[in-house]
Amino acid sequence: MVRHTATSVVTIERYIIEQESLHPAATGELSGILYDLALAAKMIASKVRQAGLADILGATHSRNVQGEEQEKLDVLANEIIVKAMDHSGRLCAMASEEETDVIPIPDHFKRGAYALLFDPLDGSSNIDVNVPVGTIFSVLRKVTAGSHGSLVDMLQPGFKQVAAGYVIYGSSTMLVYSTGQGAHGFTLDPLLGEFLLSHPDIRIPEHGRYLSVNDAYEQHWSEPVRALMRRYRGLDGKREAMNVRYVGSMVADFHRNLLGGGIFAYPPNTKRPEGKLRLLYECNPLAFICEQAGGAAIDGQQRLLEVEPTSLHQRTPIYVGSKGDVDIAREVLEHGR
Ligand code: AFP
Description:
13 strands
């Protein structure tokens, strides 16, 4: 925890500048992307906070009192991010959970050296019941020639991410990001309207207390996955039982485990052989943050950040969290015990 005094605080802007100054060759472009994302996060946070008040819930095609079409919050969050990022001259293209294809940067804006992938509002089915939701993002360096980005720029393995992060809209709004030098957390001060450094250099405990998995799928899991979950629950007598916590918002489950230790798992099941969660803009960013905090992430067979992506909205199984607990997953899934 960082203690701020009444006259001295560390804003996210100051922190990003300080981190950038550690790299003499840095152009400031990546820092600019992170500021713009922090602004988009504040705009989304304000909409999420009003969700119970404003009439913006429900179907995408519902109408407000002026008879104008209203948007669902995840569609709105998508638009907020696109519009906060498209004109900055720092991106070559974007991709979003909400959009089928790569989102080009309009011709009348300058283009830059990075590609941005994001899930604007993960866990959005939880909004109606006031459960935390999140935004997840991943930044990659452009690898193709020419100024316009393409699918090829998006289809890079997770270890190539130059920055990744998430925002959790919970009891407070927090932004956690990494540029490859540790994972750092900032809490939004609603009075100042600024993200303040609250969790520098987050370290996830080696073994955790919490198991986050939807065990309603147990009947559809393979035998090794069932054996793994029995291990985590202490049912095979080989370890102490973990506590189960499953919110159904990946960011919220991940965030709790990052701070308190534990593992989030979305294994494959017979109904979803590839799992449910998306590799490029959900799993890779969280895996990157987790590794930066001393944790680990696998897809069941290999390090998640080394999976070679083949399509934009590809799904993957995931086991992410405390290193010791992910090691158990690796072992039990490989040997079935
Ligand atoms: P929604 O965005 O449809 O609410 O899905 C949330 C999510 O992508 C992720 O945040 C959860 O961890 C996971 O799906 C929950 O899925 P199950 O309901 O299948 O457990």
